[in-house]
Known about the structure:
The structure is a single chain. The protein is elongated. The chain is mainly alpha-helical. Helix 3 crosses helix 5. The protein has helices at residues 2-7, 9-14, 17-30, 34-38, 53-67, 73-90, 94-99, 110-130, 132-142, and strands spanning 41-45, 101-105. Strands 1-2 form a two-stranded antiparallel sheet. The longest helix has 21 residues, at 110-130.
Amino acid sequence: DMLTALRSPWFQVLHLLPYLIFDALAVHVWGTTPGKALLGLRVRTFDGERLAVGASLVRVLRVYILGLGVGISLLMVPCHGFALWFILKHGEAPWDLMGGNVMRSRRVHPARIVAFVLLFLAVSMLVGYLLTPVSEAMMEELRPSETPAAPGPDA
């Protein structure tokens, strides 16, 4: 049952696992992910090399913990806030500084930023569409049940 799976504490922690694996492999192989590429970003070691597989996996786990709060909704906003503060103060994300990595950027045409935003919105809408049956089932469970009122003394 999809509803039961979504409520599982394991799902709450592991639902981002496919993304984490893809991110680690993409950063290792290409030095970037599709989203980073659209924004002109690449992850490199301080020496300018691509990350080794192990370093890429460790980096993505640090992002998962420090930046995404292990996928727990209540932790995401404080983790995002901490990451933003850290980047503004140090010029690099905590997960990159901890691993000896740097995020390199190049000038990006505004059309690429628009493409990134549109792609992000399209993926978000697709996920929302795919999860609509589950969302409706969850909402149905939350609605109060309409039980007939108990007959009064006049009945």
